[in-house]
Amino acid sequence: MARRRPAQVHGCLVVDKPAGITSHDVVDRARRALGERKVGHAGTLDPDATGVLVLGVGDATRLLRFIDLVPVPGREPTTSKSYVGTVVLGVETDSLDASGSITTVHDMSAVVATLDVATVQRVVDEHLTGDILQVPPMVSALRVDGRRLHEMAREGTEVEREPRPVTVHSFRVVAVRGDSIDIDVSCSSGTYIRSLAADLGRLLGGGAHLRDLRRTRVGVFGLERAVSLEGIGVDSLLPVATAVESLSRLTVIDDEVSRLSTGGLIARERFVGAPPWAVFETSGRLLAVYEPFANERVGDGWARPAVNLVKST
């Protein structure tokens, strides 16, 4: 007699990742605890970093790209993640954080003696806030010519990295404590906080590295929703639709559901707010996420599914 496959588990899971493990370790832990292989995360945290790691389970894995979106009045949603951490002046490391090997030590005692919150904040506001270009660190998971940068860094190889546009929504200097600067940053996905720390050290006339990084928010998911590793279980899952709660939504009548199951178009005039849009049936079940669509045959007044969760019958 064939063994019955366990029912698939679906939902979102917010984990407060501890230091000392990778994001993939957390994914593996969730797979074992939930009995579900289909688990992914919405952006890694470095092993030494702690805080919010959002997982998608089952159908929610298809919605991971929307999890870090936050609404912006009058504009399309933007990606946003928030962190707190400490910048340590005077010491540079090869990883730009406390896990790396020291590469350079600067005597910044004279600079440190003159620093206060207002002085550092002026530097941050002028150079490290808004739309900026950032060079990714060598010790990172980005790929160049098919290889991850951290793999090449371990071999002692350094390659040219193109600066990438990122957005720092806000960068608040919380406190200056001698050679340590406490920071609170909200930024777009793909921003490296340790690169911001290293850049701040250079702007202040020496060097620096990042210590004690903690992610406090991913999109609308904050620490208040997070569970510990030990708390991972079916009872800690949030509904699949939580992944798109920042998106504008449209509720369609039941007669439309079968048409949407085959990728049916929806007139853009039916949607309110900026794309992408979450489409629900009257029962509250998430059916799809739609995005603008245009071609020569139908024109430009339509939307089609970017992700379709409707099961054909």
Task: Summarize the structure in short.
With 313 residues, the chain is of the alpha+beta class.
Provide structural commentary.
Helix content is 16%, strand content 38%. The chain is an alpha+beta fold. Strands 1, 2, 3, 6, 9, 12, 13, 14 and 15 form a nine-stranded mixed sheet that branches. The protein has a five-stranded mixed sheet with strand order 16-18-19-20-17, with no helix packed on it. Strands 4-5 form a two-stranded antiparallel ribbon. The longest helix has 12 residues, at 23-34. The two termini are 27 Å apart.
Distance between the termini: 27 Å
How would you sum up the major sheet?
9 strands, mixed
Our count of domains comes out at 3
Percent of residues in helices comes to 10-25%
Mean pLDDT: 89
Order of helices and strands: EHEEEEEEEHHEEEHEEHEEEHEEEE
Label the overall shape. globular
Could you give the count of β-strands? 20
Instruction: Tell me the fraction of residues in β-strands, as a range.
Output: 35-45%
Structural class: alpha+beta
Corresponding CATH architecture of the largest domain: 2-Layer Sandwich
Assigned CATH superfamily of the largest domain: Pseudouridine synthase
- CATH class call of the largest domain: Alpha Beta
Low-confidence stretches: 1-5
CATH topology (level 3) name of the largest domain: Pseudouridine synthase
Give me the Rg, rounded. 22 Å
